[in-house]
C-alpha cells in the first residue's frame, strides 16, 4: 500500500536510562480525580463512576519552551501523574491492572479554561479546550522495572517559584488499578496508551513568560516556560 503523502511520524517519549523511546498511541485523561479539585470546579467529589476525555497523541510536547495557544485568555495548568501502558487488553481485572503498566511520567494537562467553560454552558464537547496543539506537556518516563509503581507521594506545581498545587497520589478518588480496569471496559487498551490521572486542587492561569515546575516523588521534575 502506497501513501498519497508521507504520514506523520509517531509521537514518542524518552525513557529514563534507555536509548529506546516509548511510542505513544493514544492519550486518555481522567476528569476530576481528586476530591479537592472536584470541589473547586463546583462538583460533588463522591465516588460516582469516573469519566474520561482524550487528547490527540500529537498534542504531546516535551518539557522546555511551550507556546501560549491562540483563542484563549485563561490558560490553566494541571499537574498530573501519567500512566504509560506497556500492554493492553479489554475488561482488565483490577487485580491485574498494574501488570499492564510500563512506567510513569510527570504531565501538565494544559486547558483553555474559558473555552471549556463556554463548552459546558452550551452543552458542547471539550475537545478544543483540552486537545489543542502542545496541550499535553509530558516528561521522560520512569520504567516500573527501575522505579517500581507510584501509588503515593507528593505531587506539586509551582509558578515562578511560588507553589500553587500540592496533593498526594494516594488522594486519587479512583486508584490507578481502578482507572485502568474501568477504562478497559470502554475501549480495548494497547501498548503505547497514556492515561493522565487527574490533578489536585489549586489550578490556575499561566501567561507568557511564566516558569512552571511540576514535581512528583520518584520522577524527575518537569520544567516548562510559557512563550508568547
SSE blueprint:
Blueprint: E1 12-14, E2 21-23, E3 27-30, H1 35-40, E4 52-55, E5 60-61, E6 64-67, E7 75-77, E8 79-85, E9 101-109, E10 111-112, H2 113-122, H3 127-130, E11 136-138, E12 142-143, H4 144-147, E13 154-159, E14 162-168, H5 176-186, E15 194-196, E16 204-206, E17 211-216, E18 222-227
Parallel strand pairs: 3-15, 5-11, 6-18
Antiparallel strand pairs: 1-2, 3-4, 7-10, 7-16, 8-9, 8-15, 9-11, 9-12, 13-14, 13-17, 17-18
**Order of SSEs:** EEEHEEEEEEEHHEEHEEHEEEE
Assign an overall shape: globular
In the CATH hierarchy, the architecture is Alpha-Beta Complex
Q: Mean pLDDT score, rounded? A: 95
Terminal residue distance: 42 Å
The CATH homologous superfamily is named Fumarylacetoacetase-like, C-terminal domain
Total domain modules: 1
Question: What composes the largest sheet?
Answer: 8 strands, mixed
Structural class based on helices, strands and sheet pairing:
alpha+beta
Low-confidence stretches: none
Number of extended strands: 18
Helical content stands at 10-25%
Strand percentage: 25-35%
Radius of gyration: 17 Å
Domain Fumarylacetoacetase-like C-terminal: 27-225
InterPro entries: Fumarylacetoacetase-like_C (IPR011234), Fumarylacetoacetase_C_sf (IPR036663)
EC number: 3.7.1.20
Enzyme class: hydrolase
